[in-house]
Amino acid sequence: MIARTLIRSQPFIRAFATHAGPNTALPAALHLKTGQSFHGRSFGAPRSIFGETVFSTSITSYTESMTDPSYRNQILVFTTPLIGNYGVPSNKAPIDSQDVGVVLESEGIQCSAIVVADVAEKFSHHAAVESLTSWCRRFNVPGITGVDTREVTRLLRDQGTTLGRLAVGVDASAPAPTPEQYWDPSIENLVDQVSTKVPYHLNPDGDIRIAVLDFGAKANILRSLIRRNAAVTVLPWNFDFNSIRDQYDGLFLTNGPGDPSHCMEAVLKLRETLQMWGKPIFGICMGHQVIGMAAGLEAYRMTFGNRGHNQPVLALASSGSIKAGRVYVTSQNHQYALKLTDPFPTGWEPFFINCNDSSVEGIKSTEDTGKKVWGVQFHPESAGGPLDTMEMFTDFLGECRAHRLTLPMAATTVKLTSSHKKYAAPRFPEISVSA
After folding, report:
1. Which residues form the Carbamoyl-phosphate synthase small subunit N-terminal domain (predicted)?
2. Which of 168, 307, 421, 435 has its CA at 20 to 30 Å from residue 38's CA atom?
3. Has 136 been annotated as catalytic?
4. Fold type of domain 15-187
5. Could you tell me if residue 61 is left (phi over 0), alpha (psi between -120 and 50 degrees) or otherwise beta?
6. 111 catalytic, yes or no?
7. Catalytic residue at 285?
């Protein structure tokens, strides 16, 4: 009886949803470099853009996906039909031992455009403050709705990630661009665009000091560290960590967008760190690729990439909370991966492998090296996605604390020289850095 009453009352409840605003949609078209075009109507910013067309199979968390720096300059196609139904929350949070100044994964939208089957004209959620349409308009990001995203996804699955053009307004009726007119964002160093420009501290009173190389960090990575009482110093991606490494108990390398070959400066510096430094190191996504390249592995561009919250990975080795032989469901967003080679570089072993495409999902240092170094292609911090591997953060910090107990008392002050302050403002709210 109660269930029937709730079902009958849904139209009444839905009437209290907030309307997205007046419909002033312009015609829009999505053109792919491979020759296909899809027509619909625009929402968000009334402008045309080029980008790399990719799709995500995530069912929820469109706000987290759109603010993930790893989607920089990408036209993001959502396979879930209805997008925008729960609106967009306020993106402000405190800066303390529990949070890093933002609710979502960065301060603004990172993808260049979005493609949806049906954008919600009404949204309803207790935390929502604006619609997806107005949010996109505020960050000058265009979108297209009314597109058969199933067909777009099938095309991308068959032909791989494809360059695209989202044409809005009068551009929608113009001929599709010629192949040479499409712009490929992978030729640019996207990591340099999204990395912090200035070192900054989070949770300075934490009991363990962790340096973070920011290749385009999702906020929940930093949040996952400080909530485990780590004092975090976030550094630019090409920062000379070796000049200050002895002041820290561990090094973390974050996710980031684009081609890892643009990060060779970081690879070479990390190679020295791996040779000369014995403290724990953990890398995620781009950070994992940088670790692998520093170890001697080669990175390659995947045909499709893996993007979504449902990627199964098989653990090939045990470490901390991870048990060999178990399958873990993970959140992923990457176009590049490390090549699986035989033999593996001396001192290294595969950690995870993808159950769908057999790509390398993780590497680790071998026990005989005496080092504690891990890299994973997936996102243990989720946001959004499953929490199967979240305890890897606890494992990493546990190893940092255990290693610290074997050493003399560490310095209590992190010192950054004046030359380390030459960078511009960070992507997250700036924390003062002591001289």
Report:
1. 26-167
2. 307
3. no
4. Glucose Oxidase; domain 1 (3.50.30)
5. left
6. no
7. yes
